[in-house]
Amino acid sequence: MTESDANLVLRTVDGDLAAFETLVNRYERSVRSVARAFLMDVHACEDATQEIFVAAFRALPTLRERDRFGPWLMQVARRVSAKMRDQHTRQPTPQEFDEPEAQPPRMPNPQSQFLLTLISRLPEHERLVVTMRYFDGHSSQDIADATGSPLGTVTKQLSRAYDRLRQWLTTSKEIVHE
Amino acid sequence: MNDHELLEQELHSLGDELRTSPSIATAVLRRIASNVEVSSLTASGRLQTANPETTHVTKVRRFRDRVRPRFLTSATVAALVFVGAVLVFSLLRTDAVAFAQVRERIAAVRTASFQFKKFVTLRLPEGRSEVREVEHRVYVRGDGRTRIEGPDGIASIQSLDDLIKLDIDPKNRTATLRYLYEYENQVDILATLRTLHESAKASKIPSKEIAGAQCPGFRIEERQSTLLVWVDPRTLLPAYAERSYSAAILERDRDVQQVVETYDKMKFDDLLADDLFSVVPPADFTVTTVGTAPADRKTIVTERLVVTPNVGAGPLRFGMSMAEIVRLLGKPDSEDIHVPDVPVSDDTVEVDGIERPAGASLIVLTELHVLGYNGLGIRLTVEADDGLRGIQCLGQDSLGPEGRTFQGATDKGIQIGSSAQDVLAAYGAADKKPSGQTLSYDGLNLQFGLTEQMTVRIINLSDSQEHRLRFEWRTPREVGSKR
How far is A155 from chain B (nearest CA, A)? Predict the structure, then answer.
C-alpha cells in the first residue's frame, strides 16, 4: 500500500530524508509539468523543478495540513516558476553553463504544450490528480492513498477533469487565441 | 477510438515525454544535504569530505540532529494548541467542529476498531416485517489487514496485500483459507473506514450525546448509501456512525425493505497485536482451501499472446470475469476504477429512457476496472456484469521503467514497433482517422496508436457488445437513527 503524503511529510520534518526523496519521486513529473507551463527553456525548467522541491523542503515545517501536501506543492511550484520566469526573461541564459555530457531534456511538441496549458487551467484538485495519474504514473488507488482522499473522490475528479479537457479541446482555437 | 480514449492517449504521450527527463531527486537531496552541511560547518568550523555514500549518511544524521529540536518544539506547541482547542470546545457550542478537522484526524489514523451491527428489515407476507440483526467486532490496520470477530470466537482475517482471507472456527477447530478475487463482492473495511472522511458532501445534522459528550453530527451522501457520523469533540474522531442503503440498491432484493449498518464503540490508534491479523491457520485445525492461488506470472510472460479482434488475446477472452482473469494472470500491478461520464444539466429530463424525478441527481453505478499488468505490457478493462471489455497492448515507453513491451502480435502479425505501412498492408485503409496518429478499424473494434515516427505504440482492442449503463436517479431523503 502507498504511504500517505501526510506520513511522509511528518517523517521528513522529523529528519528522514528518504521520506522526502519518496515525495520527490512521487510528484516530480507533476511539478515539472507546472514548470513547463511557465518556462519554455528546457534548462530553466529543470532548474525550476529542483528549486521548487528545495523551496518546498524548507517551507515544509510551516505546512499545517499535511494531507494537503500535493495541492500545497503545486502552489509552491507555480510561485517559484512564475518568479523564475520573470528572472529568466530579464537574463539571457549563459551558454557556457550548459553541461555537454548531460542529455538535454526534450520539450513537448506544440500539441503537448497546448495540452499542458489546458491542464494548468483545471481546478487545483483536478489538475493534481491528472498530473499524478498521467505524468507521475500513479494509479487512482495510489493517489487516493497518497492524498488521503477516498478512491471515489479521485475517480470523480479525474472524470470531471476529462470532461473539461475534452470540452476545451473542442474549442481549442478560441482558448489558444484568447 | 472515441474522444475519451484519444484524450487518454494524448495524456499518456505527454507523460511519456515528461518521463524522458532524468530524475532530479538525487540532485535535490544533494542540495538539501549540502545546505545542512554548510550550516553544520558554520557552527563547528570543521570541514568534512568523504566518499559520497558516507557523506550522505553523515549529512542525513546531521539534518536529524538539527531539525529534531525544532520539531519537538513545534510538537509541544501543537499539543498545547490541541489542549486549548479541547478546552475551547467544552466552552463553545459543539457544532463549531468542522468536518474538515475530522477528515484530517481520520486521515492520520493507523488502526481502528469498532462494533459493527447490521439491521436487515425483511418483508414478510400480509404486510408484516422482521428485523434481523448481526453483530461483529472489527479491527482494521493501515496495511490492509482486517479482523472481524463474530459469536463463538469465529473470526475472519483478510489481507488485501496477500489477497488471502482466513476464516477460523475455534468451536469446531476448523479453518478455511480463501483466495480473494474468487468472489465479486469483497468487503473492503479499510475503504469503508476511509469513506467516513469524504468531506466534500458533508452537511451538519443535530448533535447526539454519546458517553457523556455532546457529539456534533454530519451527513454524507455516498454513491449507494447515506452515512451519518457523530464526532467526539474531544478527539475530533468519530464516536458513532450509521449507514443506510439507497432504495435502488434495496430493490435488487425484493425481500429486503431496509438495511442499516451501525459503527459503535469506536477506538482509534490502539496498539493491535500482529497475532490478531495472522493469515496462517492454527496448527491443529482442519484446514480447507477454497479457490486457486494466483498464477505464477513467469509462466505466462514467456507466452507470445496472439491478439484476435472481437475475440481476445491469447487465453484472455472478452467477457471473462475479473476472478477468471486474476486466476489466469495473477494479481494486477495496478487497478484503477473509472466511472463513465454522463453529461447531465438542469435541463436533462431522462437518461436511457428513464425519466428524471424532480430534483434528482444522477448516480452512475457502472464502474470500469482497469487492471495493469506491466510485465505483460497490457491493460485490461473489466466491468462487473460484462466482464472483460477492452485490451490495451503497450510498449515500454507507456509503461514506465517496471514495464515490459507487449511481446505478442495481432493475428496478422502487427506488433508494438510495426510501421503504419505494415498496418495498412495487413488491414487495408483505416475507417477513420480522428488524429494523425491513430489507425482505426471499426468493424474489428481495433485501433493502432502511432508514434511521431509512425510506428505502432499502442494496440487497442474492444469487444463487439453494446453495454448498458447502470445508474439511478437519487433524490435527497432523510434517514432515521437506529441507535
Answer: 6
Distance CA B246, CA B472 (A): 10
**Interchain proximity B15–A137, CB inside 8 Å:** yes
Residue A40 is predicted with a pLDDT of 66
Neighbours of B16 (CB within 10 A): 21
Topology, domain A5-177: Rna Polymerase Sigma Factor; Chain: A (1.10.1740)
Instruction: Please give the single-letter amino acid code of residue A26.
Output: R
Helix (H, G, I), strand (E, B) or coil at A64: coil
Structure confidence by residue, pLDDT tens digits, B134-183: 888 989 887 778 898 988 888 989 876 666 789 899 988 999 887 765 43
Q: Please state the ipTM of this predicted complex.
A: 0.73
CB pair distance less than 8 Å for A150 and B7: no
pLDDT band at B240 (very low <50, low <70, confident <90, very high): very high
**Domain residue ranges in chain A:** 5-177
Flag if B17 and A111 touch (Cβ within 8 Å): no
Which residues of B, range 220-249, sit inside 8 Å of A by Cβ?
222-223
Longest pairwise C-alpha distance within chain B: 91
DSSP class of residue A137 equals -
For chain A, the residue count is 178
Mean pLDDT of B412-429: 91
Q: In Å, how far is B385's CA from the nearest CA of chain A? A: 19
Q: What is the residue-wise DSSP string for A78-121? A: HHHHHHHHHHHHHSPPPGGG--TTSPPPPPPPHHHHHHHHHHHT
- Estimate to the nearest angstrom the gap between the alpha carbon of B107 and the chain centroid: 15
Domains within chain B, CATH numbers bracketed: 94-290 (2.50.20.10), 294-462 (no CATH)
The residue in chain A having the minimum alpha-carbon distance to the alpha carbon of residue B338 is A155
Mean pLDDT of A35-46: 75
Nearest by CB to A108, which of B17, B144, B335? B17
Contact A1, B161 (CB under 8 A): yes
Region for residue A15 given its phi and psi (left: phi exceeds 0; alpha: psi -120 to 50; beta: otherwise): left
The answer to whether the CB atoms of B223 and A152 lie below 8 A apart is: yes
- Give per-residue pLDDT as tens, B181-191: 543 334 455 55
pLDDT band for position B343 (cuts 50, 70, 90): low
Compare all CA atoms of chain B with the CA of A131 and give the residue at the minimum distance: B15
Chain B nearest CA to A33, separation (Å): 7
Cα B228 to Cα B261: distance, rounded to the nearest angstrom: 10
| Cβ within 8 Å, pair A13-B343 | no
B 178-207 residues with CB < 8 A to A:
191, 194-195, 197-198, 200
| Exposure letters B292-306 (e unless 16+ CB within 10 A, then b) | eebeeeeebeeeebe
The DSSP bridge pattern shows strands B256-268 and B312-313 to be unpaired
